[in-house]
Amino acid sequence: MSISAFMDKHYRHFNAREMVEAAKTYKSMVEGGGKMFMSIAGAMSTAELGISLAEMIRQDKVHAISCTAANFEEDFFNLVAHDEYELCPNYRDLSPEDEFKLREGGFNRVTDTCIPETVIRHFEDNLLEYWQEADQKGEQHFPTDYFFRLLKDGKLQEHYQIPPENSWVLAAYEKGIPVFTPGWEDSTLGNIFAARVYDGTLSTHNVIHPGTRMMQDLVKWYLEHEKNGIGFYQIGGGIAGDFAICAVPLILQDLEMRDSNLWSYFCQISDSTTSFGSYSGAVPNEKITWYKLSKDSPKFMINSDASIVAPLMFSYILGQ
């Protein structure tokens, strides 16, 4: 039995039913010529979402991405250092002493997965070369541009430790889809960049485009692709989602382009609680008041674990 057939047979109620319905609507929209924008929060790259997401990108089921900068860089880390990671299946039982030993051993823990510090410093060395070059030339680029240049220059290929088809950033680079990383400074390499400006290794922060320029490019992309509708698929909440979804109210209210379209589809996977006033847990209807969704837009809220739900939905959308 295929994954899709299994889901159709067993997932008939509650979150399971909503997941199948959301996947069917997603599939119908992109097959009908619409575009799909995806936002990714949490630590989904370290959870190896790339195994399923990369194929979605290759098969034109995802057309642009907004993600936390940590998700962006951590897919790169996994690509070249996967074999050096350490797994901690008993992470709930770790004592402060256990955590201290991991830190002293050169690991940074994300739930059950420990990322080696060495891979971070490897990227710092390579990116610093690009940052300094831009500094000297007075150039300014997006954070993602510097990372993608590593792929273009072939600096990483000999270091791949996973099948390259399992890397979503590599798939995005090869397909040429835009990747936006709002709040880049809230990431390991963003911290390192700020440190290199602080210590004088770099003379300015201006080698990185500001977030407002990123928003401008997102608005431009939206306006160029909205003809057949653009859907919004959101994993988690936070800045990755809120930054991107705000492009539409910016167009409608701030640019006063009233003939532009609202988001044509919305689906979110979240484990946040609505009553806490969080953006992550806000029900889709709340977005109507903010000029993000219309009252008729298909809307889905799946209250579950994205590391389980997203690969299942992707399989369904891909017809597996």
TrEMBL record:
Recall the GO molecular function terms of this protein's record.
deoxyhypusine synthase activity
Does the keyword field hold Ribonucleoprotein?
A: no
- What family does this chain come from, according to its entry? Belongs to the deoxyhypusine synthase family.
What name appears for this protein in its UniProt entry?
Answer: Deoxyhypusine synthase-like protein
Catalytic activity, EC:
2.5.-.-
What domain of life does the native source organism fall in?
Bacteria
Keyword list, A-Z: NAD, Transferase
| Pfam families in alphabetical order | DS
Q: What class of enzyme is it?
A: transferase
GO CC terms of this entry: cytoplasm
